[in-house]
Design brief:
CATH topology: Rossmann fold
Mean pLDDT: 95
InterPro entries: NAD(P)-bd_dom_sf (IPR036291), Sc_DH/Rdtase_CS (IPR020904), SDR_fam (IPR002347)
Order of helices and strands: HEHEHEHEHEHEHHHE
Pfam families: adh_short_C2
Helix content: 40-55%
CATH class: Alpha Beta
Enzyme class: oxidoreductase
Largest sheet: 7 strands, parallel
Oligomer: single chain
CATH superfamily: NAD(P)-binding Rossmann-like Domain
Family: Belongs to the short-chain dehydrogenases/reductases (SDR) family.
Distance between the termini: 39 Å
Number of helices: 9
GO molecular function: oxidoreductase activity
Number of domains: 1
Strand content: 5-15%
Length: 258
């Protein structure tokens, strides 16, 4: 087997949440480019349809399950669609997430709960629903999208709910990795830094001073592009990372080094 073969995902089936745009779309296309069929679960959105079309243009099968990852029934539908329709579920990418800002002393608890519902609880729920299929695969891989916010406090923005939820994602990843190690499932996380997602693009124009402050804290001096997560996702989903579990791979241009 060559090094190239280790990254080959041909014949494997992936389910990606929140794949309509930005990081989720980029990772979906990277998995497909390396041979995986890709199903996405996301709200009804034209951008998600474009992701699905992009997967098909790469010569892979694609499915679009419209649904909310906080809805247990929608999670079951998505897992069943992949495992039954394609014969296996091999890769789960928990990417769906939101961020709601607010000072710690005044942020509405409803906003904090909403962030935790999507960024943490839905991640565990979808992983639980996918567990049997991932075990049956014999090569199950779970990729949780954490953030540098789970490792360092982001500032100057007020991000207590997001910071806390992403920190919990890190420990969720490590716990699942340990508890599920004997099943053949590997669980890892990616912690992106400031990536040029649609949300960051918007903030760059709305709050240019804040954006420049963020970039001044990134040793590489620039935001990451969504495509720059593709290689990391393929590595963790493939046999190239066969002895890696419970790890958090940071992709941040050096931000957390300072």
């Amino acid at each position: 087997m060559t090094v190239h073969d280790l990254f080959d995902l041909t014949g494997r089936n992936a389910l990606v949440s929140g794949a309509g745009r930005g990081l989720g779309a980029a990772m979906s296309l990277a998995l497909a480019a390396h041979g995986a069929n890709v199903a996405v679960i996301d709200a009804a959105d034209e951008s998600t349809s474009k992701t699905v079309q992009g997967v098909r243009e790469l010569g892979r099968d694609a499915l679009y399950i419209e649904g909310d990852v906080t809805d247990l029934a929608a999670c079951r539908e998505a897992v069943d669609a992949v495992a039954s329709g394609w014969g296996s579920l091999d890769i789960l990418v928990n990417n769906a997430g939101i961020a709601l800002n607010g000072p710690a002393e005044t942020i509405a608890m409803s906003d904090v709960r909403r962030v935790f519902d999507i960024d943490l609880f839905a991640m565990l729920q979808l992983s639980q629903v996918a567990y049997d299929a991932l075990v049956a695969s014999g090569r199950g891989r779970v990729l949780n999208i954490a953030s540098i916010a789970g490792l360092n406090v982001l500032h100057p923005q007020k991000h207590i709910g997001y910071n806390a939820a992403k920190a919990a994602v890190v420990m969720l990843t490590k716990t699942l990795a340990v508890e599920w190690a004997g099943t053949g499932i590997r669980v890892n996380a990616i912690a992106p830094g400031y990536m040029m997602s649609p949300a960051v693009e918007l903030l760059k124009h709305e709050k240019p001073a804040d954006f420049e402050a963020w970039m001044s804290m990134v040793p590489m001096g620039r935001p990451g592009e969504p495509d720059e997560l593709g290689g990391t996702a393929v590595f963790l989903a493939s046999d190239a990372s066969s002895y890696v579990t419970g790890s958090v791979l940071v992709v941040d241009g050096g931000y957390t080094c300072t």
